[in-house]
Amino acid sequence: MANGPSTIENKKRWIPHTYAILVGIMVIAAALSYIIPAGEFERVEQDGRTVVVPGTYQEIEQQPVGFFELFKAIPQGMTEASNIVFYIFLVGGAFGVIRETGAIEAGIGRVVHKLENREKLLIPVTMFIFSVLGATIGMSEESIIFVPIGIAVARALGFDAITGTAMVSMGAAAGFAGGMMNPFTVGIAQSIAEIPIFSGILFRASAYLFFLGFGIWFVMRYASKVKADPTKSVIYDLEQKAKKESVRNAAGEFEAFNGRHGIVFLFLAAGLSINVYGVFEWDWFLTELTASFLIIGLASGLVGKLGINGTFEAFVDGMKVIAFGAIIVGFARAILVIMEQGSIIDTVINAMAGLIGSLPAALNAAGMYVVQVITNFFIPSGSGQAATTMPIMTPLADLLGMERQVAVLAYQYGDAITNSIIPTSASLMGYLAVAGIPYERWVKFVWKLVLGWLLIALVALVVAVQLGVS
Predict the structure, then answer these.
(1) Cα separation of 132 and 265, whole Å?
(2) Taking residues 242-246, what's their average pLDDT?
(3) Using CA atoms, how far apart are residues 295 and 289, in angstroms rounded to an integer?
(4) What is the crossing angle of helices 161-178 and 404-416, to 10°?
(5) Would the pTM count as exceeding 0.85?
(6) Could you tell me if 143 and 169 are in contact, meaning their C-beta atoms sit under 8 angstroms apart?
(7) CA nearest 370: which of 395, 352, 345, 391?
(8) Residues with Cβ < 8 Å from 339, sequence gap 6 or more?
(9) 186-206: burial string, b at 16+ Cβ within 10 Å, e else
(10) Could you read off the pLDDT of 176-214 as tens digits, one per residue?
(11) Using CA atoms, how far apart are residues 314 and 321, in angstroms rounded to an integer?
(12) Cβ neighbours of residue 303 under 8 Å, at least 6 residues apart?
C-alpha cells in the first residue's frame, strides 16, 4: 500500500520539536560552562561596529551558569532580541493583510490560467514568480496553499504531482536561497553582523540566477521525461489512482484578478522599491523597514476592501502564522546569553578559528558553510538559525580576516538549501502533506537538485572570498 500524509506525520514523531532542541542546547551550554575554560577577547569599536582583536584571547576565572540562571536566560534573550522579534511579528502581520486581500492568489491564478496551453512556459514562469516572492518577502510556508493548484495544472498538462509541487516549492526555494531582499533571513543576519541591510545585493542576485536556472532546468527535465513516459514518475502508482481535475476548477477556487488586486501589487512593488532606496540612501534599518512594511500592509487592507476591522484581524492572523519563527529568535538568543554569562563563547570562537583557520583561506568560508548546513537540520527556522549562529560567526569572520558579508552568505546558503530535503523543515513537510507525496519518494526526486544547489553555493562562497564581497 502506498504511503500517505499520515505516514509522513508518523516519520516526523521521532524528530524533537525545534523549541525542545533549543532548550536542550541551552542546557548543554550551561553544563559546558562548568567544563570549558572561561576566556575572553578584547573588543574595540571600529567604523561603528564592535570587532574582536585577534591574538588577545586569554583565560579568566570560571563562571558557571546555575539552574535558575538557565531559565532566566530565556526572558533575557527575548529582551535582547526584541528589535528582531517585533520586526518579524509586525512584518508578518503586514504580509498577513496582503495575503488576505487575495491579490497574491488571484495574480498567480491568472498567470497560470494564461499559460494552460503553453506547457513549455508554465514551469519556468511559475518558478520565476515564486522565486521572486521567496527572494523578496521570504515566501516559504505561505506557498503551501498554491501546491494544489500547481498539481492540478501539472496533471492537466500531462505531468505529475511531483512536477506541480516542485514548480511552486522549488521556485520559492530558489528565491529563498538567493535572498536578495529576504527580511527574515538576510535582513536579520546582516543586522546581527552589523553590516548594511541588503548590502551585497548584486552578488546575491548573480548567485540567485544560477540557483533558479539550475532549478528550472532540473524540474523541466524531469517533467519532460514524465510526459514522454509516465512510468518515469517517482510516484507513478499514486498518479494512476489520482482523479483528474480540470485547470479551470482548480483556478476557480480563488477570486478572479481585479483592479483592487492590481493596486495591492502596485503598493507592494512601490514599497519594496522605497525600502531598497531607503536602505542604501537614507541608512534605513529595522525600525524604518518595519514602519514601511506596516504602511504597505495597512494600505493594502484598505484598498483590498477588508475594512478597518478586517484589516487588523488579518494583521493579527499574520502575526499568529509567524509566531513560531519570531519567538524562536528569543530562545536562540538565550543560548548566547548563557554562553556569555559563562564566558565560554570566546573560547568556542577561538577553537573554531583554529579549526577553520587551518584550512586554506579560500576554504574558511566553506568550513562556516558546512557548520551552517549541519545546524539547519536542528534549527530549520531561518531567523532562529541567524540568531543562534551569527553572533558566533561574526567575530569568527573578524578573526579569520574574512568579510562579514561572506559569513552572512555562508549562513544564508547553509540555512536555505537543505530546507528542501530535511524532514525537520516545516514548509517541506507541509508541501508533502498537502500533495500526498511520501517523503522518501520526494527525496528520490529532489536529492540531485539539492546537491547541485549545495555545489553552486560552495562555488559562490569561494568566489565571494576571492572578490572580497563586502
Answers:
(1) 13
(2) 50
(3) 10
(4) 170
(5) no
(6) yes
(7) 352
(8) 29, 33, 345, 348
(9) bbbbbbbbebbbbbbbebbee
(10) 999 888 888 898 899 888 898 888 899 999 999 999 999
(11) 11
(12) 101, 260, 263, 264, 267
